[in-house]
Amino acid sequence: MRCLLIASILAGIVGSVQGHRAPVTARKSLGFGPIHPHAVYRSNPYQIATNGFLPQSPDADPFEVARLFIGDILGPNQDQASYKIRPDSYTDPSTGVTHVYVRQYVHGIEVADGNMNINVKEGKILSYGNSFFAGTPPSLIAVPDLRNFRHPQREYCQDLSAELETQFNVFASTQNEQAPMGDQKTSKSAAFAGPLTHLYYSNCQFDGLADDMALKRPQAIGDIGDMRPALLQFMVAATPKADVVNDILGNYDEHLNKMSVSGVNHFTPEGEQTYLFVDNVPDTVNPVKANIAYIQIPSKDGSVELVTVWKFEVEMHDNWYEAAVSAIAPHRIISVVDWASDAPIPVPDAPKESASYNVYAWGVNDPSEGNRTLQKENFDSLASPIGWHSLPFANDPSYRSVKPSNEFYRNTSTTFGNNVFAQENWEGQNAYINNYRPEAGSSSVYDFQYKPKVSDSDEAMAVAHNYINATVTQLFYTSNMIHDLYYRYGFTEVAGNFQQYNFGRGGREGDAVIANAQDGSGFNNANFMTPPDGTNGRMRMYLWNTANPYRDGDFEAGIVIHEYSHGLSTRLTGGPLNSGCLGWGESGGMGEGWGDFLATTIRSTANYSDYPMGAWAANRPKGIRNYPYSLNETVNPSTYQTLDKPGYWGVHAIGEVWAQILWLVSQALIEEHGFSDTLYPPMPLENGTVPANDFYRPAVGKKPLVPKHGNTLSVQLVINGMKLQPCQPSFFDARDAIILADEELTGGENFCTLWKAFSLRGLGTDASVQGRTPWGGGIRLNGFATPTTCE
């Protein structure tokens, strides 16, 4: 009964050859092959030494070292005709390791899965892998014993079917479901089995037709001259189109006769594989490349034997396959690899419209600089692959219902997503999951009124609460923009960024930013709590009672950016799992300074201006710092030695000095390289690559992309410097880390530009400090010298 039920599920999802095929949510992609029990990988020096191979001279040719090592592995009865070193072997200039790739040959025919990879450095074998066939070579044409011949695709499909049955049993035990009772229960079961069913659909839907077709067109044992029957056999399994399958089965001879085979490519370099080319193959977009080869198949008795196969390279609309099909009928598919790799990111079943928000757009710092406009959800396919309003059910702390069995992601219609949980927190408590959030419904339009009005002091709080929808929307929008921007500059999953789900890209997940708007725990402030990677960061934004009506810190982007940047600098300095590296003194002050610098850089334009910090929220034109950030020494006289002045022991005051120095550094880079109107890198293409434009310099090999303009370059160097500096860095450490970051990124072309800029405010090579204390005290001396190469 279970098998019948599974069959009905499969029929409901993938349809049949005769009927209309139901749509699927992911492309079809074959992928299976035999497991080689004899394959080994050795990376331990003692394991390598057991072969009796001794290190050669450090100056020895690494390819000659590899040949000697292969000889030791293969033994005295083998010669160089039994293998070829592949032309894609190379020496990595960054590591000095030579990667040697070797393919096995028997009777001059390649063994498609007989491989060695040998890693050589300075005459030593660092590691190697080996899957060479080690048995007795067969006759020229390896005809398998069909009584002992395994069927990799059939076994794969049988195992998958068994797993489907097991999973259904689990599902049925929780649902109290018996035999299918109509379409509703079958549909419910099918939804549960969705992911496994897709695998079955891709690899096994037409498996039963393979042997049927072989019986229709029997081929004599040993007759391998015509690869067309084997190729048609593969196409029945490879095509996702039921009508193509029906056409092949119904018009087999016609298709066979249409397929023409041309000779070898005479332009193939000597020593490389030659191919036949097959035209007019159903559902392909280019001629199929074919060549004869051996492949290793474990037999039922546990041994391994070579089988003669046709190896095909089949290019289709959505797939590009390398397949091995037995040359002897019945033409069984032995192995298949799809060169078109899907990203390991599930896609929501139902596409949703991008959200839009009535907000102060990115770059508009606060209400004094412009009006609110409707902005689209500007998520980046690298930084936020599923947008701002989706996250996996399994990673959603707010979801309490039973997850739909065939869905991976949950789409939300509130300010709740993979990067940010934004909500009110009027009570000022730690609870956030059930706090109020604006609801956009199916429209995904977050357009809410914001018209604060003057009121009596006892009503001011209620007035502010009335526009909470607009407030939370703004906080959600700004925080997601920061997430995506910093991601593109290197604050990724492995670096410890803030995401509930990391898409299998490393780092610890479960740590989206909890962003509380109008937090009731205080006034006239903001803060960000940064625990180690894997625990949610927490941002608290406050109302400011510095004006009537109250001003809301959520509407001043500079404050939000400053707070979020605490999470950036804390996670990058000393590593994502160490949140104790910016706690006090100069290091704690720089934690504040980076936030001011990045917030000011993000709001700046090509028309230079001085900028205060927190001016709108505080209702103070000069802002909440001692000085605005300025090139003019009379406007901002801060130098390194300013840290010794009374009142400069606190982290905020120390941070002002660091931010001012960084402001001068960035302006020097802008003078050298120009200004970009956007700090945001170009959106990646669908294949994940970044398009060529005016943002980056032309790419050079595999080197990292270099921002072209001074303001973008300064952000990149500052963030890269955070990664290079030590835990508890001093001003000197952070300065040197930025200069090192430029050395690694550009080859040091800005060495003197950076040193001259740092020296302008006393952080030159001769600057010094004595008796530095945890709270920032000490005796400092400005230094205005630069390296002699810069004089």
TrEMBL record:
Start and end residues of each FTP domain: 88-132
UniProt keyword Signal present: yes
Similarity annotation: Belongs to the peptidase M36 family.
Enzyme class, spelled out: hydrolase
Source taxon at top rank: Eukaryota
Pfam families for this protein: FTP, Peptidase_M36
Compartment annotation: Secreted
Organism field: Lentinula lateritia
Signal peptide range: 1-19
Entry-linked InterPro entries: FTP_domain (IPR011096), Fungal_virulence_M36 (IPR050371), Peptidase_M36 (IPR001842), Peptidase_M4/M1_CTD_sf (IPR027268)
Protein name: Extracellular metalloproteinase
